[in-house]
Amino acid sequence: GAGVSQSPSNKVTEKGKDVELRCDPISGHTALYWYRQSLGQGLEFLIYFQGNSAPDKSGLPSDRFSAERTGGSVSTLTIQRTQQEDSAVYLCASSPTGQIYEKLFFGSGTQLSVL
Amino acid sequence: ILNVEQSPQSLHVQEGDSTNFTCSFPSSNFYALHWYRWETAKSPEALFVMTLNGDEKKKGRISATLNTKEGYSYLYIKGSQPEDSATYLCASQVLNRDDKIIFGKGTRLHILP
After folding, report:
1. For A86, how many CA atoms within 13 A lie in the half-sphere containing its CB?
2. Residue B1: its pLDDT value, please?
3. How many CB atoms lie within 10 A of CB B28?
4. What is the percent of chain B where pLDDT is above 70?
């Protein structure tokens, strides 16, 4: 079956513009994560959706970042008024139920460059 | 240890040699330890998920061990091959972090021909 799909694969934007990043998880997966990797850094947790529960937004770096997940499937990460420090690879991952022993299935990421 | 730490940050290994690297994680309220391989231009791919102290997992030439009491895991690669060149990520799930999966910065492995 299809894996986790992310779009766009690359996004170049100007400082101050808004961007939207999309993630299509594997069908039926209830848990969805957003991470980002800045140059020289590890994978930084951003937000976690689990079924119909309120999302865990504790990793979002500022109020310019928001995410939603419609119908328990597709998720959109929105960055408003982008800054150069937002440049990173944004990765989405899903797992079947979010149980502790489940591995994550990752998308190929969106490379965001803010000029 | 409040975060997941990996060492070394980067490693060069001659083809055919064996190697290993370390992941350190919070030992209190431990849930699970994950290892992922991230090759350039590809998605991170799960290698192992381990939950029990003393657990050992093996996948081909790659194996991992887990010590939950002292908070460390080792990843071993036997007889390194060029296709092993990748970043190896370790991630921990801890109770007091609401089950979030927290990653280390990774070990970048380069296999020299």
Report:
1. 29
2. 46
3. 10
4. 94
Q: Is B111 on the interface with A (CB under 8 A)?
A: no
Where would I find the H helices in B1-113?
none
**CB B20 within 8 Å of CB B76:** yes
Tokens of B107: 């070990």
Distance from C-alpha of A110 to C-alpha of A5, rounded to nearest angstrom: 10
CB interface of A with B, residues 40-99, below 8 Å: 41-45, 48, 56, 58-59, 91, 93, 98
Higher pLDDT, A79 or A42: A79
- B41-79 pLDDT, tens digit per residue, is 899 999 999 999 999 999 999 999 999 999 999 999 999
Residue A88 has pLDDT above 70, yes or no: yes
User: Which chain A residue has its CA at the smallest distance from B106's CA?
Assistant: A42
